[in-house]
């Protein structure tokens, strides 16, 4: 049988199997259109299907072929067939057929109940491809798969069982081309191939973190939309890894997963073995191979099923560098070979254990760092180090300088008392010995990132602190405090918290005449800072109170310390600054204002208005002015902060960093945005994001996420919806991954997701996000927080746009009630809410 004939027969049978049994023969006759030979073949195949309880295996034996040998269907154009009859699936109605294959039929559709407009793709699954307990499993998977929210995953909106007993999935409709078509038409170079492939990996890695394995990754299941973004499809047939399901259930939903895409099947799928994340890693390796080589690693065309399976199970792939159709000059070809080969190992346990590990190696490949897939020899690591990481030598040299400095610091702290001097020198030697030993053990050639080298250095040091300083608790506590502070700066917040808690416990246990116990002031200071970073504002306020109380109770002793001198007044101003910042966030503006007046008077009395700490407080005061609706004063303050921080950074003053310059520009952008000066706002916002991109590159960062989010909101108002949507979505998922679901910044992003849909005229979707954001904020901040003015006003605005004035009025009244408690009539959001309310009253 020719492939074209088989393709026609296969599509007819797939269509017929979706019909009730009593209608199937009539449907065959209709589809064959008078071709008696084709009709006879179709009827014979249909009869064999009904006679066999193992349809899939029989189909393979009878036809001596398999679906993957048929030319792949490329995201075909939408068709409106003359004989097409619309059907309803849940709230959605089909408007045309998009594609048809072994899994079922894909239709284009739209929402049919009139609630809101939404263009969708409806996949009606082949009923014969689901297992006996499919209804229970289908309901399970519907809930879990619908929860997948990632910019590179086509969203599942709905799923269910139709009135005609057909399983269906309603998915995001993606305009674009398949990855296979993209490769053939665009012929992307290596950089673009790797960029698109990494987007695919990010989607799969996200699904794995949600306990879902895709199982059918292939170029046909990856679309490139009109904006150039990757969208991975068909998570609707993914297997769920869960202890609640038996191994038999996990591998059973399709009676033969091999029939899905044999050319992309892993060896364990051929052997009906256990399906894990390693199965997806294998398929990803095949996809990467095809993207770079422009062909599949195994040619299965014309092979019988048994021959194809033998190739997959036994034949090794040729090195991708030998088959590459793109230039590999910018990377180490041997490293690329190693990465792909590791993905394609026959044994799952020898592949990458996670997609994140694969992504890490791809990052290393592009940066010419050592890749984990290569043998971890010292010669290989050193070669990489010498080629690209020359400045890493300066990291090592810095640690050596730090070791010497430890001794010097202690020496200058020698007091007039000889025994105290000897004690200090002894402790300095102990610290130095620890650092030298660790330095000799740690291999800094394994990374070009000084932050990672620092973290590893500290981890090794901590392992030695316990037995080296077991009998010197004060020094041990101080080391733990310093290490905790560095871990905090590296973004390792949980580790920092643990180290600070251990340090505090030791310091509290010291006798009253032990000067080291006064380092509790620094512990409280760092704990407050840590709590703010983690979004725990009430806890931060408690630590700020504890710091202030500790300082006031021990003022005389702290001012007279010799071994561990502390700046009493500086710490007192810091404690007040934390409290003022938290009061601002909590909407207690009078308390915050009063504290800022005390703070600025304190810095003036110290003649310390050039310090970074002073400008941190000025910057935070700018946000208080902003939150009170005094935008012009806030803008003036941010201008001063930008000027001071830029000058301080250019002159090399301590603590004046590029991140703080970027932060000041971001604040200015937002204040200008609220004043309606969109062009100036965009200019400052883009400058801020550029700085953060220079600092962090492609790495996830809280500051970078904020800059993306703010720029998205600003340009959205200018009608730049596509760029805005991309920025805001990236920021939301970055915050969610870094900070969790209940962090204040994540909650802010929920509201901003609502704005994305609101300005894109998807009002129902916007309403869902606005309500979700408000409910989340109420749980975290309570019922009467001033931020609820914006949230409630947004909900009311959507209802107003939908013509539901009764609901809009209710939410506007709630918003105005909040506004009257915290704002005056000059507040922009309050004025807009009042105007909207009056217009419908």
TrEMBL record:
The source's superkingdom equals Bacteria
> Where are the annotated TPR repeats, by residue?
705-738, 789-822
Alphabetically sorted, this entry's keywords are: ATP-binding, Kinase, Membrane, Nucleotide-binding, TPR repeat, Transferase, Transmembrane, Transmembrane helix
Where is the Protein kinase domain positioned along the sequence?
92-365
User: InterPro entries given for it?
Assistant: Kinase-like_dom_sf (IPR011009), Prot_kinase_dom (IPR000719), Ser/Thr_kinase_AS (IPR008271), TPR-like_helical_dom_sf (IPR011990), TPR_rpt (IPR019734)
Q: Does the keyword GTP-binding apply?
A: no
Q: What is this protein called?
A: Serine/threonine-protein kinase
Q: Which organism is it from?
A: Gracilimonas sediminicola
């Amino acid at each position: 049988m020719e492939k074209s004939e088989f393709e026609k027969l296969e599509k007819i049978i797939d269509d017929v199997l979706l019909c009730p049994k009593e209608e199937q023969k009539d449907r065959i006759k209709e589809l064959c259109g008078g071709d008696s030979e084709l009709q006879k073949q179709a009827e014979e195949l249909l009869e064999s299907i009904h006679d066999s309880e193992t349809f899939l295996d029989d189909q393979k034996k009878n036809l001596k072929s398999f679906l993957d040998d048929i030319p792949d269907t490329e995201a075909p154009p939408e068709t409106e067939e003359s004989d097409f009859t619309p059907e309803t699936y849940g709230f959605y109605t089909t408007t045309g057929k998009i594609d048809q294959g072994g899994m079922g039929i894909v239709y284009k559709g739209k929402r049919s109940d009139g609630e809101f407009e939404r263009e969708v793709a409806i996949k009606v699954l082949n009923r014969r491809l689901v297992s006996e307990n499919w209804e229970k499993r289908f309901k399970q998977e519907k809930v879990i798969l619908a929860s997948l929210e990632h910019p590179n995953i086509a969203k599942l909106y709905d799923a269910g069982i139709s009135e005609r007993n057909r399983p269906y999935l309603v998915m995001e409709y993606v305009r674009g081309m398949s990855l296979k078509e993209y490769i053939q038409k665009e012929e992307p170079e290596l950089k673009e191939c790797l960029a698109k492939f990494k987007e695919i990996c990010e989607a799969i890695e996200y699904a794995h973190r949600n306990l879902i394995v895709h199982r059918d990754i292939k170029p046909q299941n990856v679309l490139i939309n009109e904006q150039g973004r990757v969208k991975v499809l068909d998570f609707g047939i993914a297997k769920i890894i869960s202890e609640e399901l038996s191994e038999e259930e996990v591998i059973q939903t399709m009676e033969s997963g091999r029939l899905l895409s044999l050319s992309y099947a892993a060896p364990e799928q051929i052997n009906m073995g256990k399906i894990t994340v390693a199965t997806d890693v294998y398929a990803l390796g095949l996809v990467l191979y095809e993207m770079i080589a422009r062909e599949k690693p195994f040619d299965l065309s014309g092979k019988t099923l048994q021959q194809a399976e033998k190739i997959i199970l036994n034949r090794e792939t040729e090195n991708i560098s030998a088959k590459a159709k793109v230039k590999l000059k910018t990377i180490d070809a041997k490293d690329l070979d190693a990465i792909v080969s590791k993905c394609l190992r026959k044994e799952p346990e020898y592949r990458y254990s996670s997609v994140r590990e694969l992504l890490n190696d791809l990052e290393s490949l592009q940066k010419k760092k050592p890749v984990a897939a290569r043998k971890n020899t010292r010669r290989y690591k050193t070669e990489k180090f010498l080629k690209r990481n020359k400045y890493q030598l300066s990291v090592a040299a810095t640690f050596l300088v730090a070791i010497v400095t430890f001794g010097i610091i202690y020496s200058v702290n020698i007091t007039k008392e000889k025994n105290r001097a000897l004690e200090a020198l002894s402790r300095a030697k102990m610290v130095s010995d620890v650092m030298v030993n660790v330095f000799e053990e740690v291999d800094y050639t394994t990374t070009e990132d000084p932050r990672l080298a620092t973290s590893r250095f500290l981890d090794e040091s901590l392992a030695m602190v316990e037995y080296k300083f077991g009998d010197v608790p004060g020094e041990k506590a101080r080391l733990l405090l310093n290490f905790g502070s560095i871990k905090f700066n590296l973004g390792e917040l949980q580790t920092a918290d643990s180290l600070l808690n251990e340090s505090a416990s030791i310091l509290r246990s010291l006798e009253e005449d032990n000067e080291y116990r006064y380092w509790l002031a620094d512990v409280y200071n760092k704990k407050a800072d840590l709590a703010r970073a983690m979004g725990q504002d009430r806890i931060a306020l408690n630590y700020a109170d504890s710091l202030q109380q500790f300082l006031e109770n021990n003022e005389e002793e702290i001012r007279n310390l010799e071994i561990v001198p502390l700046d009493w007044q500086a710490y007192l101003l810091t404690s007040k600054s934390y409290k003022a910042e938290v009061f601002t966030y909590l909407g207690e503006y009078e308390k915050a204002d009063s504290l800022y007046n005390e703070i600025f008077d304190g810095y003036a009395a110290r003649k310390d208005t050039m310090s970074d700490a002073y400008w941190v407080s000025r910057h935070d005061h700018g946000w208080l002015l902003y939150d009170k609706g005094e935008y012009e004063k806030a803008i003036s303050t941010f201008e001063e902060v930008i000027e001071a921080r830029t000058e301080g950074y250019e002159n090399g003053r301590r603590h004046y960093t590029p991140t703080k310059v970027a932060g000041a520009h971001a604040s200015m952008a937002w204040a200008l945005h609220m004043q309606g000066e969109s062009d100036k706002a965009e200019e400052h916002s883009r400058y801020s994001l550029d700085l953060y991109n220079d600092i962090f590159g492609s790495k996830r960062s809280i500051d970078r996420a904020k800059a993306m989010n703010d720029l998205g909101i600003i340009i959205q108002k200018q009608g730049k919806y596509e760029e805005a949507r991309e920025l805001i979505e990236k920021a939301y998922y970055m915050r969610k991954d870094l900070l969790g679901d209940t962090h204040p910044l994540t909650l802010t992003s929920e509201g901003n997701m609502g704005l994305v849909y609101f300005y894109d005229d998807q009002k129902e979707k916007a309403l869902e996000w606005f309500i979700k954001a408000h409910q989340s904020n109420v749980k975290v901040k309570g019922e009467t927080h001033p931020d609820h003015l914006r949230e409630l006003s947004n909900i009311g605005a959507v209802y107003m746009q939908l013509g539901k004035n009764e609901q809009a009025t209710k939410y506007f009244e709630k918003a105005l009630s909040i506004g009257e408690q915290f704002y005056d009539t000059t507040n922009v959001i309050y004025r807009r809410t009042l105007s909207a309310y009056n217009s419908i009253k």
